[in-house]
Amino acid sequence: MSDLIIEKIISLINNRNRDNHDLYKNNGYINLLSLYQQAIFEQSNDQEVLNLNIRNFKKVEFKSFDSKNLVGIVHLNEKKTNKWILACHGFSSSKESSAIASYYFNKLGYNIFAFDFRNHGESDDAIITMGVNEEKDLKSALDFLKKNYKVKELGLIGFSMGAHTINRFALSNDLKSYNIRFAITDSPYFETTKVLKKIINSIGGPVIGNILDKVLQGVYKVYNNNYKIDIEFDTITYRIALCEKTFPILYLHSKKDSVTDYKDSEKFHSLRKILNVKDSLHIFLTGEHIRTQVMHPEMYWKLVENFINKK
After folding, report:
1. What is the span of the domain harbouring residue 265?
2. Rounded to two decimals, what is the model's pTM?
3. Residue pLDDT, tens place only, 185-205
4. What superkingdom does the record give (predicted)?
């Protein structure tokens, strides 16, 4: 397999979201928030999303484990509260999307904190690892939140890669005193290799399709040798048996999701039963990848609210 092909594929994986730096000039994140807010309203017709005052979002910055600069945005609820929701975006997305997708928590009396994973949005360039180093970014975000704000109660919400990252962290035995009460994971994937295969196939199309397995092996080799990330053998299955403390997770997915498999949410839910934690699962019959929120907003947020109230 040509090293040039492998390098090109890895470059494409890590540059799909890096052409929007101009969007962030002069507090451009507000404009992005506005675009996402309008899009969700138009698709869901949920007036509640318009009640989120995007002008109240303020930018913050902090460092990850390897000194990469990560950028986040904070929205303080109009009614003073120590309840927080931390939102994690998906691959090739940004903090603005996950912040707006968390809009209903504003009604529930939460402050909202969203941040850009490495190599996304306004955060520093770095190799995307589909959850491995992103899990450490999430921990850095939690440390920042704990250090700079009073956090009495904390929830997490993640979408696709962000959902996978939360599931990893939930089994990390590194929860310390974060006081995480619950998490919502929307359309997670279970295996990094499985979703990476789909991403590479979507990038390369029919040409790559014929040599996909060889390309994957080349990508795994580069990640392993150059970045010390063993994607092929990095699995979270073993963590479940070793997990000593976790928090309840609500799994939301759609049978029509063509990017991540709804059976992955079922797998998470089933395997975590040994942890004796009150997880919950709902599989929608319709809705594309991370689109059930806009297709079924009333049901979606009712499930979330009921889940939180039972904790």
Report:
1. 3-309
2. 0.95
3. 999 999 999 898 888 888 877
4. Bacteria
